[in-house]
What we know:
Layout: H1 7-39, H2 43-68, H3 70-79, H4 83-114, H5 127-135, H6 138-153, H7 158-180, H8 190-213, H9 216-226, H10 232-266, H11 268-304, H12 308-335
Helix pairs in contact: 1-2, 1-7, 1-8, 1-11, 1-12, 2-4, 2-5, 2-6, 2-10, 2-11, 3-4, 3-6, 3-11, 4-5, 4-6, 4-9, 4-10, 5-8, 6-8, 7-8, 10-11, 11-12
Amino acid sequence: MKLADYIPYYKRNLHLALPVVISQIGQVSVSLVDNMMVGHVGTSELAAASFANSVFMIGMFFGMGITFGITPLIGSAFSGGKFAEVAVWLKNGIFTHLAAAFVLCLIMFGVYFLLPLMGQTESNRTCQTLLLIALRFIYALSCFFSFKQILEGIGNTKVAMYITITANVINVIFNYLLIYGKFGFPELGLNGAGFGTLISRIAMPVLFFLYILKTPAIKTYFVQAHHQVFSRQKIISLLKIGIPIAFQIIVEVIAFSIGAIMMGWLGEVQLAAHQVAIGLASFTYMISLGISQANTIRVSHQMGVNDFKALKRAAFASTHLVLHFMSSMGVVFILA
């Protein structure tokens, strides 16, 4: 097959991927904004925020990976016209994701007690408070990613993008108010960044819920899901897909997090500098991850209608896009 034959697939994949990519970038943008604004407070605070974010990202990405398992299942059922099955996956999916969030929260709370043993400087250990604040929005993130992956499974990728952009704006506003103590708000410094992020993360599922309530076409699935029963088989199927995806993502992310811990052994300045550099790399990673998510939607829809020829071409087209993009970014990083 000639490269020119893939052009229609490139266009369709990119059209679907763009909102997903922006949404994924928005997830890491929260941490980047926190680091930028905390950096004005001091190097020690930036190092502590960097360390806390590095540890928390492991749990966040694992939970996010588990939710990815529902997208191909809903996508295949939706494109095949099995709308009742979409409702079944929806109910069992949300339950599975919230249960996984509870387990993750317990594990991350255990990690909280291990932070002082990771060889960090005394000031870096202040990240314990920041991690506790972050644990409070694990459930909010799980709800958001559940809604996001469900809607993306039926081909709606723009809502999550708009909500993510809005949440980032909320994060910047409350960071400004709470870090620096503006307009009568308390000056909380590093903890202000944590509470600003907490507010923005809670806003995400709330905005999604309001959208669902005001959109009859989407609300119908949730009403139908309410009348469905929990299925052990469905839950196991979701976990069989989601857990391997979560571990695959974590294998990549944990390398960054371990790097942050080791940089903390060298000192605060080294850790802060490392966070700035790795934040740029995270942008490119999330763009590739967004393209892969869009590819999951395209493949599941083609599988639902048994069009395996288009499925294969869509998959290869996304692979071409990621290879080209990451190669280009490698060159940019080296030159710039």
